[in-house]
């Protein structure tokens, strides 16, 4: 039966002929825009919200016991989320790849868009029946994390590999993606300016509702108008493909496909490096505001300057990636990513040697470190797309296992999103951050060693100083150690010399 173009294909051709717009790339960029706005705000604010405003205890946040707390959380929510976060992407990622190209990305976006918008709003409106730090606060955190970062997170990652096409046609979609990510990153800046960095909580809540609505509309438009290259190529053979789908959801097929993906020699190198990058990114997103608020006095950096600095941590990475287009063509993503690791390690070592009293240098270091981490992470879809292609060629598949590759990667890297806040909060609370957070007025640890109303940890008048030191060394040593580990695991990656001229 002859294949005839559908309404989406005619729309794509019309956009390209009349306006010179890559309609499919534009549609997928709307997914990036919608999901990116919500991701930026969620990752940046949720830890401080639950720690400083909802007063969640360490027990409710991630551990099973806390001797000095009357709160007895029924479960470890960060651990629950870590397990769910790891298994949900590969579990649900197998479904699109098994259901054929026509339903792969488009239906996952259409179904996930409104659900993801609602899940985004869960943490910002407290469940009033709960006392501060009570078990219901922990339940709200667990539900919000599992709902927002569950299966709908697939809607904006795997479609990129399918929409790019082969290497010669992948540059334009990549640039569309980065422009959308740039626009999405401004959400943190405007949120900080309009809500005074979450001090005006009513304005903050109103802004999150607006973002959720805009994001849902963007992703629904993407699901309606996007068409992958494999859908265009294979739609006329869909009836024949039905015969090959029997048993597609069997456990044996999942295990077999996952084994094939993991035996690709570059996959373990990438996954290990990506694990540390996800850990570093979560470390920056979740604690940048907390570290800056406590390490740099408020009379040195005003609230508006801090908002701009926080916004720059999300906006500048995307500008950097867009401006590095020529460098990507000349050197390839492998060398640029490797250089970013060297920079992070050297910058962390220098800052640690300079000390903590150079406030402006510290602010510059914290911001640039976040910029480099975010910018290099924006390039990670490129090697992962190459791994998808390598798997396609090696096993002679008719269609790529994009969602399976991205999901298997998530199985090993997503736990880092939970390990980062769990580890850092444990260290900070050991040095008295929980007590500091519950002092009325939130005293500035730069001003006094024993604030009024604070009960020193271990009866030491230097508890605040110890907390300050702990924060500073976390800011310096975590990036340094991660950079060293990433350099060691990224060097063996062997696809770096294949696609210098046309990154995906």
Automatic annotation (TrEMBL):
It is found in: Membrane. The chain crosses the membrane at residues 21-46, 201-223, 269-292, 304-324, 336-356, 362-388, 470-493. Keywords: Membrane, Transmembrane, Transmembrane helix. Its main location: membrane. The keyword Nucleotide-binding does not apply. It is a multi-pass membrane protein. One of its GO terms (cellular component) is membrane. This is Transmembrane protein 180. It comes from Chloebia gouldiae.
């Amino acid at each position: 039966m002859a294949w005839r173009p559908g309404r989406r294909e005619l729309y794509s051709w019309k956009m390209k002929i009349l306006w010179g717009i890559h309609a499919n790339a534009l549609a997928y960029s709307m997914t990036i825009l919608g999901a990116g706005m919500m991701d930026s705000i969620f990752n940046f604010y949720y830890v401080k919200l639950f720690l400083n405003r909802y007063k969640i205890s360490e027990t409710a946040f991630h551990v099973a016991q806390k001797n000095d707390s009357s709160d007895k959380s029924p479960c470890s929510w960060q651990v629950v989320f870590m397990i769910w976060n790891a298994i949900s992407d590969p579990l649900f990622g197998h479904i699109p790849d098994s259901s054929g190209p026509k339903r792969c990305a488009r239906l996952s976006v259409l179904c996930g868009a409104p659900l993801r918008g609602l899940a985004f709003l869960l943490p910002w409106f407290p469940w009033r029946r709960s006392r501060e730090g009570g078990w219901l606060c922990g339940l709200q955190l667990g539900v919000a994390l599992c709902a927002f970062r569950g299966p709908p997170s697939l809607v904006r990652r795997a479609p990129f590999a399918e929409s790019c096409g082969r290497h010669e046609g992948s540059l334009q979609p990549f640039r569309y993606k980065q422009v959308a990510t740039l626009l999405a990153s401004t959400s943190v800046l405007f949120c900080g300016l309009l809500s005074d960095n979450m001090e005006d909580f009513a304005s903050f809540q109103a802004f999150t509702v607006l973002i959720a609505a805009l994001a849902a509309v963007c992703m629904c438009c993407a699901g309606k108008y996007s068409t992958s290259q494999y859908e265009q190529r294979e739609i006329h053979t869909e009836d024949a493909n039905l015969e090959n789908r029997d048993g597609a959801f069997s456990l044996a097929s999942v295990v077999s496909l996952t084994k094939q993906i993991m035996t690709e020699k570059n996959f373990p190198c990438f996954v290990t490096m990506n694990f540390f990058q996800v850990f570093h990114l979560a470390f920056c997103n979740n604690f940048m505001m907390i570290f800056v608020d406590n390490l740099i006095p408020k009379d040195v950096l005003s609230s508006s300057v801090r908002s701009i600095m926080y916004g720059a941590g999300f906006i500048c990475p995307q500008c950097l990636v867009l401006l590095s287009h020529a460098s990507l063509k000349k050197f390839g993503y492998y060398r640029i990513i490797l250089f970013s690791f060297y920079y992070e390690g050297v910058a962390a070592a220098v800052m640690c040697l300079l000390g903590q009293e150079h406030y402006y240098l510290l602010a510059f270091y914290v911001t640039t470190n976040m910029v480099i981490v975010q910018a290099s992470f924006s390039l990670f879809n490129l090697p992962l797309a190459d791994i998808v292609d390598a798997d396609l060629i090696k096993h002679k598949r008719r269609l790529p296992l994009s969602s399976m590759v991205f999901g298997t990667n998530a199985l090993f890297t997503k736990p880092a999103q939970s390990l980062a806040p769990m580890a850092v909060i444990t260290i900070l609370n050991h040095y008295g951050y929980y007590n500091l957070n519950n002092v009325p007025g939130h005293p500035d640890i730069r001003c006094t060693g024993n604030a009024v109303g604070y009960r020193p940890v271990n009866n030491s008048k230097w508890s605040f100083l110890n907390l300050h030191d702990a924060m500073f060394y976390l800011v310096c040593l975590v990036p340094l150690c991660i950079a060293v580990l990433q350099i060691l695991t990224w060097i063996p990656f062997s696809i770096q010399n294949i696609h210098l001229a046309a990154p995906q």
